[in-house]
């Protein structure tokens, strides 16, 4: 009987070790559309847009899309070890959607709001709506 308890204890310990360093490592993913996800690893300020690979670096503050494009609002990271969000700086990205596992279509950005709006007009993007928003006062 003691041997069974010992094996059960060892099995439980191994399961805990394999389950993510006792909760010290955390992450989250929001599926946006197609193969696009907003993912953060370890800290929420590391939130970035991915399509298998990173397309827009952290900190992604808002994302939207239509049938052709994704729209992303981003604040860059600064400070030692990229530990703070520069809320005073805002970049915009316009990303041509693809069904591919890799981004084989154009990615425009980082852009100022003015240049982003001009590009949207030039490409015939009528309405830009950020349907997914994340806290901007991190």
From TrEMBL:
Source taxon at top rank: Bacteria
Protein name: DUF3997 domain-containing protein
Keywords: Signal
Natural source organism: Hymenobacter metallilatus
Range of residues in the leader sequence: 1-26
